[in-house]
Design goal:
Shape of chain A: flat
Number of helices of chain A: 11
Shape of chain B: globular
Order of helices and strands of chain A: HHEEHHHHHHHHH
Distance between the termini of chain A: 62 Å
Oligomer: heterodimer
Number of strands of chain A: 2
Structural class of chain A: mainly alpha
Distance between the termini of chain B: 64 Å
Helix content of chain B: over 70%
Strand content of chain B: under 5%
Radius of gyration of chain A: 26 Å
Largest sheet of chain A: 2 strands, antiparallel
């Protein structure tokens, strides 16, 4: 009888050990799987662009052609559009988001904070296709009818506001504003976290020295959060670079490089998206994949840069405390 | 004894103080205005969708398929069925893998192994979703044609990092005392994880999954190259064929010059945004509650 219980116990122990190994293995496969998926994405996207790469080489990046009839393709127009719209979006979004972060962390009373904070995050939950629809039908006409003529009248001597506003309201400016709306909630919520993480005694010490709230923010909060803010803005950049749908809806999807923000253009992501109903040749398909490969490299670089900054920032904080 | 110069200083100091207070006030107003602006934009977008969308809603909109070009009427029934199917299949793929990754990272992996996996998840999370569409296009669609399954796989890759990260967070919140109690009773590690840790964290995992579902339901870019060329407008839920979807319908209708199509796009947006805002608000509320509950146990 005692031998049967001990063998039972032995069996149980073996089952336990097998179970441990099994669960460990199963979850390890899942973890490895997600790394493999990332590798496969990179491999397939580079592999798919091989035809175009062998034809145009790295010169693709600097070529302005996008001509399916002559079978000539290049990415420069779209890189320009991506850089321009993302830059303007960040130019507007960065101060705005930092302002929101400061309001939520330093100024707003608790009740207001608990309502406004989630509302700002809700903005991030609005699907890009709906923001794009709103961009074409509401924002575009407003820009074309009101804001663009105003900018043209008052600041028309600047080339970016030169040229007559278009009737449709689709163009670089509309795309940049839609991107701003997508980037703000991301940067704002990260900045709020950063500002809240600044030690309270530092803030109170500054106020006790007789500084005003703004001087405290400028002297204590912003310097302490500086690198984190840089990372947050870079994460926002990653979002702006890769947005395809909303930009396709509002930018006008036109090849070419135009200085005036009122004009139509195209970005890497929106060029890919706008060609989904079929490309005419294998070379064109491969060139679209090439555009995706450029986008992939950009977004991975941006991500790793942001990670590196965050990591350094964490070390600094640990070192300081 | 106040001299002339010291009084001058006092006056100058007073003026400087007033200027400092003014700058402070201006900055406070600027910060408040930024927050107001963000809330106002959300309100304007939501109100636009409500205003234009509600009028175009009807029973036909939910129960009938689109009519051929030029024929009035019809609905988006096939898009609703297709979206449900696409997101359901994507969730079935992303949920077990995501939870598995989270268990591995929090329970088994050493720091050296966990780091690269977390990095990979962050990079996956940062990938533009159009790139995922292109990935599935080169992987499957180029050889075998479009299918709902390909689109669901792309959506699953969108969801995976979200599910994995939120699950990791709740697993880390599970109090160490629970884990130690399980082990002290002689339970094996896997029994402790499956029997104690996972059930404690279930609420948080479901919340994270709900947020991921809300995100996937609104994604358009991964569907463009994988599930956009329909053979017919019949209502179908077969994931081996391309399935229509709500975001794609909005995208296509928004590009149309017809005002009647715009009305349908607004109506579809109304349904989609209601679904997303309600699910993510509910998930957030539940998340807050479960965090507080776990906090109390610990």
């Amino acid at each position: 009888m005692s031998s049967s219980t001990s063998s039972l116990r032995l069996g149980r122990r073996r089952a336990d050990r097998l179970g441990d190994v099994f669960l460990h293995g199963l979850t390890a496969v899942a973890a490895l799987g997600s790394v493999v998926v990332l590798g496969m994405i990179a491999y397939k996207v580079f592999d798919g662009s091989r035809l175009s790469f062998s034809r145009f080489g790295l010169g693709f990046v600097a070529s302005r052609a996008w001509d399916p009839v002559a079978n000539q393709f290049g990415a420069l127009d779209f890189i320009y559009g991506t850089a321009l719209t993302s830059f303007i979006a960040l130019l507007i979004a960065a101060p705005l988001s930092i302002g929101i972060g400061l309001f939520l962390s330093e100024l707003a009373p608790r009740g207001v904070r608990e309502i406004v904070g989630p509302l700002v995050e809700m903005l991030a939950a609005v699907p890009s296709v709906i923001l794009g629809l709103w961009g074409i039908l509401v924002l575009g006409p407003f820009l074309a009818g009101t804001l663009e003529p105003f900018l043209h009248r008052t600041l028309g001597f600047l080339p970016i506001f030169g040229g007559d506003p278009q009737q449709t309201g689709s163009g670089y400016l509309t795309a940049s504003i839609v991107l701003t709306i997508m980037v703000v909630p991301i940067v704002a919520s990260v900045s709020r976290e950063l500002f809240l993480a600044v030690p309270r005694d530092l803030k109170e010490g500054a106020l006790a020295l007789g500084l005003t709230r703004w001087e405290m923010v400028r002297g204590v909060v912003l310097p302490a959060a500086r690198s984190g803010l840089a990372a947050a803005v870079i994460l926002g950049l990653g979002r702006a670079l890769g947005e395809a749908i909303a930009v396709t809806q509002v930018i006008g999807t036109l090849t070419g490089i135009r200085v005036s923000l009122f004009q139509s253009g195209d970005t890497l992501a929106s060029r890919i998206a706008s060609q989904y109903q079929g490309a005419s040749s294998a070379l064109q398909v491969s060139s679209l994949v090439y555009l995706a490969a450029i986008l992939l490299v950009m977004s991975i670089l941006v991500n790793i840069l942001a990670q590196a900054i965050v990591r350094r920032f964490e070390f600094q904080r640990i070192g300081a405390s | 004894m106040p001299t002339a110069t010291s009084r001058l200083y006092a006056v100058g100091g007073d003026r400087r103080l007033r200027r400092r207070k003014l700058v402070n006030r201006l900055m406070e107003i600027a910060a408040m205005t930024s927050a107001l602006l963000a809330v106002a934009i959300l309100a304007i977008v939501v109100i636009s969708v409500l205003q234009h969308g509600i009028g175009a809603l009807s029973l036909d909109f939910f129960t009938r398929s689109p009519q051929p070009f030029g024929v009035a009427g019809g609905g988006l029934a096939n898009a609703f069925v297709g979206s449900l199917m696409l997101v359901a299949v994507a969730t079935a793929m992303a949920l077990p893998v995501g939870v598995g990754v989270a268990i591995f990272v929090t329970e088994f992996a050493s720091r050296r192994v966990a780091g690269p996996i977390r990095l990979a998840l962050d990079v996956l999370n940062g990938l533009p979703s159009i790139v995922l569409g292109i990935f599935l296009f080169t992987l499957v669609v180029a050889a075998h044609g479009q299918s709902g399954l390909a689109a669901s796989t792309a959506l699953a890759i969108v969801m995976l990092p979200l599910v994995a990260r939120s699950t990791q967070e709740v697993l880390l919140l599970a109090p160490a005392s629970l884990r130690e109690a399980g082990l002290a009773l002689g339970a094996a590690r896997w029994r402790t994880i499956i029997g104690i840790i996972l059930p404690t964290s279930l609420g948080g995992i479901l919340t994270g999954t709900t947020l991921a579902v809300a995100r996937a339901a609104g994604e358009t870019a991964p569907l463009l190259f994988t599930s956009s060329l329909l053979a017919s407008n019949d209502i179908s839920a077969n994931p081996r064929h391309p399935l229509f979807s709500v975001p794609l319908a909005i995208f296509e209708l928004s590009e149309s010059p017809e005002p009647a199509d715009h009305a349908k796009a607004w109506a579809a947006s109304f349904v989609l945004i209601s679904f997303i805002l309600v699910t993510s608000l509910a998930a957030r509320a539940a998340l807050g509650r479960s965090r507080r509950k776990l906090g109390r146990v610990g």
